[in-house]
């Protein structure tokens, strides 16, 4: 597994092309895209998290997304 960090500005057309390094082999691959606005959020690296750990945690939490966004769940925000 190879982890790349690419910082860019998303344009009005909402399209992004990424040139991969030459050492990335051609063929089947899983690509995980994490959009993190740079003006917001938690600096996980400053808290000791590797990018791969953050990506794995996000992937695991993804299964909760539908429940978390369900009607009525905003009541938990007030707790």
How would you sum up the major sheet? none
What does the radius of gyration come to? 16 Å
Counted by DSSP, the helix tally is 2
Shape: extended
Strand content: under 5%
pLDDT averaged over residues = 80
As a percent range, the share of helical residues equals: 10-25%
Structural class category: mainly alpha
- Topology as H/E string? HH
The strand count comes to 0
Spans where pLDDT lies below 50 across 5 or more residues: none
Distance between the termini: 39 Å
Topology:
Elements lengths: L50 H11 L3 H4 L11
Give a description of the structure:
The chain is an all-alpha fold and 79 residues long. It contains 2 helices and no strands. Helix content is 19%, strand content 0%. It is extended. The relative contact order is 0.12.
Please provide a brief summary of the model.
The protein is 19% helix and 0% strand. The chain contains 2 helices and no strands.
């Amino acid at each position: 597994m190879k982890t790349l960090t690419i910082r860019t500005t998303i344009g009005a057309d909402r399209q992004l092309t990424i040139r991969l390094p030459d050492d990335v082999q051609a063929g089947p691959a899983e690509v995980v895209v994490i959009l993190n606005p740079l003006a917001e959020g938690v600096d996980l690296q400053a808290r000791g998290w590797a990018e791969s750990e953050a990506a794995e945690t996000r992937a695991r939490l993804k299964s909760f997304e539908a429940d978390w966004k369900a009607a009525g769940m905003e009541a938990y925000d007030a707790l």
